[in-house]
Amino acid sequence: KQEVTQIPAALSVPEGENLVLNCSFTDSAIYNLQWFRQDPGKGLTSLLLIQSSQREQTSGRLNASLDKSSGRSTLYIAASQPGDSATYLCAVQTQGAQKLVFGQGTRLTINP
Amino acid sequence: GAVVSQHPSWVICKSGTSVKIECRSLDFQATTMFWYRQFPKQSLMLMATSNEGSKATYEQGVEKDKFLINHASLTLSTLTVTSAHPEDSSFYICSAAGRFLETQYFGPGTRLLVL
């Protein structure tokens, strides 16, 4: 059974800092891994999708890496801004399965 | 990108009543739709997977007779919470995927409060 863990559960940093969010998964036979952002009381916004054959994806100030063999992914946020404050969720789609398995999320606060 | 809508966005109901939530894919055909539930400060938990024209597949621990799912067309799935109780109060999110399941597109969610 696939299990996804995110560390830390919460993170508070001053504006302008670079930061890294971590995601680990137990079954390395994945189809893809996705990072989402969720604002309070809202739905999910997809940030980056990494296919199993890829090692990283970049979008603006965001960079996500994938090390399938070790069951890890990181989301790197450069030059953080207060508007980046949200909960970040990592989700994995296992090979042969349709569903996504989500981590518990990291609640990020960027202080002005 | 693909757009998924949910209706209503907010619903308050009395205990014992039934509530229907709609999930629509607006600009693509969703062969598969997923229903998730999210309790406060927790992550999304998959409740069920539905394929158009087939019966939904429920996750372990989810009562299929309480959470009725209908996926009658390629653009619409509905979740009906029957005989709702306060413990059913939660944030319900749907997602939709096309034929090749390359990615899921998420709706904005429906917040249910059962009094």
Mean pLDDT of chain A: 94
- List the uncertain runs of chain B: none
What is the global morphology of chain A?
Answer: globular
How many β-strand runs of chain B?
11
| Total DSSP helices of chain B | 0
Helix content of chain B: under 10%
Q: β content of chain B, as a range?
A: over 45%
What level of helicity do the residues of chain A show? under 10%
* Overall body shape of chain B: globular
| Biggest interface, chains and residue tallies | A-B, 20 and 22 residues
Quaternary organisation of the protein chains:
heterodimer
Rounded to the nearest angstrom, the distance between the terminal CA atoms of chain A is 41 Å
Given helix and strand content, the structural type of chain A is mainly beta
Report on the architecture of this protein.
The complex is a heterodimer of chains A (112) and B (115). By secondary structure, chain A is mostly beta strands. Chain A is 0% helix and 60% strand. In chain A, the strands form two sheets. In chain A, strands 2, 4, 5, 9, 10 and 11 form a six-stranded mixed β-sheet that branches. In chain A, strands 1-3-8-7-6 form a five-stranded antiparallel β-sheet, with no helix packed on it. In chain A, strand 4 and strand 5 form a beta hairpin. Chain B has 115 residues and is mainly beta. In chain B, the strands form two sheets. In chain B, strands 2, 4, 5, 6, 9, 10 and 11 form a seven-stranded mixed β-sheet that branches. At the A-B interface, strand 4, strand 5, strand 9 and strand 10 of A face strand 5, strand 9 and strand 10 of B.
Tag the structure with descriptive keywords:
heterodimer; A: mainly beta; six-stranded mixed sheet; five-stranded antiparallel sheet; 11 strands; 60% strand; B: 115 residues; mainly beta; seven-stranded mixed sheet; four-stranded antiparallel sheet; 51% strand; globular
Short description:
With 112 residues, chain A is mainly beta. Chain A has strands at 4-7, 10-14, 19-25, 30-38, 44-51, 56-59, 62-67, 72-77, 86-94, 100-102, 106-111.
